[in-house]
Design goal:
The protein is α+β, with helices and mostly antiparallel strands. The protein folds into three domains: 2-81, no CATH class; 171-270, no CATH class; 274-370. Helix content is 61%, strand content 15%. The protein is built from eleven helices and eleven strands. The protein has helices spanning 2-7, 10-36, 46-72, 74-81, 83-167, 187-208, 211-214, 226-237, 289-292, 296-313, 330-341; strands spanning 168-170, 175-181, 222-224, 243-249, 253-254, 261-269, 272-274, 279-285, 347-353, 357-358, 365-370. The strands form four sheets. Strands 2-4-6-3 form a four-stranded mixed beta sheet. A three-stranded antiparallel beta sheet has the order 8-9-11, covered by helices on one side. α2 (10-36) packs antiparallel against α3 (46-72) and α3 (46-72) crosses α4. The chain is rod-shaped and about 180 Å long. The two termini are 113 Å apart. 13% of the residues are buried.
């Protein structure tokens, strides 16, 4: 109720009342004046003229009210002059509302279908997750089975290798001997050196076979290909460079009644790689064995491994079976370990060539330790 009094345009209402009253009084005065003077308008009788003036005054009052209200109110102007347009707009709005309701209904149907599809997708997703869990479980089981199979395969390989090792008399590509041939040697000298190589090969073959089979192998034939040997003698006799000849076992030879060792010969140019007294390899070590948990023996093994790699890179031929380029005698090795163990300061280890070292090797060295 309080909003009614506060929001009502009382000024407009009172203005309309006062304006209407003033027009009514003015019309009454004008009508009385024309009536007393008995004036006639449009040839009407005075009485009718007075009534006409009164009617016109009422019309002016209505016009004035409508004019004032139209001036101050958009709603009045709309009701007086835009009712048809308002009805058309209302009809359009009603039509749009109907269309919106139809669209809303259609959207609800689509939403229901989408919801059903979403539920189905969620169900499929749950199914796929369950299948993923099952597949992961199967994967773990397969990985476990694969690991077990690998271990079993490794064991089988180990057992097979052990079995083969027990039955192998001589492995393939074992270096059994080598000789160097200087340029200008006569054919007789070359044949003599090759005979000496054959004798070395025979001794090394017997030495590499176990003691159990030693007595049975004294009469085992060791064969050299005659054609290859003849071609080799011709090549060595005509060579202007120092050549080497290496004797290698042709293949793996197993113990048996028909054991026969075939030797293959390889030749190549023999080049002087290290001169006698020349450093073959040098390396600096901090010798912080306590911090690195490295023993003197481990340090020396590291040095010898690096020495082998350098010698191979410099052109020294390694033993095909062991990949070694030389050996350090046991006594010399342990003496070197003992000497290195007594050194606590940083040290330079040098490998000095004991003699001239050629392509075919072996690398024979003396070890020197410098603090």
């Amino acid at each position: 109720m309080s909003n009614f009094f506060t929001e009502t345009n009382w000024l407009l209402i009172f203005s309309l009342i006062l304006g209407s009253a003033a027009l009514a009084v003015l019309g009454d005065i004008v009508g009385s004046k024309y009536g007393k003077k008995r004036l006639s308008v449009f040839k009407l009788r005075p009485k009718h003229t007075s009534r006409l003036i009164t009617a016109l005054t009422g019309g002016f009052i209505a016009i004035g009210i409508l004019a004032v209200m139209s001036a101050f109110s958009q709603d009045v102007r709309t009701a007086l002059f835009g009712m048809k347009m308002l009805k058309q707009q209302l009809y359009d709005l009603q039509f749009q509302l109907t269309q919106s309701e139809e669209n809303t209904t259609q959207m609800r149907v689509s939403l229901a279908e989408a919801s059903a599809s979403l539920d189905l997708t969620g169900f499929e997703l749950d199914t796929m997750r369950n299948e993923k869990i099952i597949l992961e479980q199967e994967k773990r089981e397969l990985e476990t089975s694969l690991l077990i199979m690998r271990e079993e395969l490794q064991q089988i390989r180990h057992d097979l290798k052990a079995l083969r090792s027990e039955s192998i008399a001589l492995n393939a590509n074992v270096l059994l001997g080598q000789r160097a041939f200087e340029p200008g040697m006569s054919r007789e000298e070359i044949v003599k050196e090759l005979d000496a190589l054959k004798q070395t090969v025979r001794l090394n073959v017997l030495a590499k076979i176990s003691d159990q089979a030693f007595t049975r192998l004294r009469d085992i034939p060791i064969e050299f290909d005659a054609e290859t040997e003849k071609a080799l003698i011709d090549e060595l006799a005509n060579s202007d460079e120092r050549q080497y000849v290496r004797a290698l076992s042709g293949e793996n030879y197993a113990f048996g009644e028909n054991l026969r060792i075939v030797i293959k010969l390889e030749t190549g140019t023999s080049i002087l790689t290290y001169r006698s007294g020349e450093p073959v390899y040098r390396k600096f070590f901090m010798n912080d064995r306590e911090e690195t948990k490295t023993t003197a023996e481990g340090l020396l093994h590291t040095f010898l491994r690096d020495l082998r790699n350098k010698a191979v890179n410099d052109g020294i031929l390694p033993d095909p079976a062991t990949n070694n380029v030389g050996t350090l005698e046991g006594e010399a090795f342990f003496n070197a370990v003992e000497e290195l163990s007594s050194i606590t300061n940083p040290v330079i280890i040098s490998a000095i060539a004991s003699g001239d070292i050629y392509t075919e090797g072996p690398v024979v060295i003396d070890l020197i330790f410098e603090e």
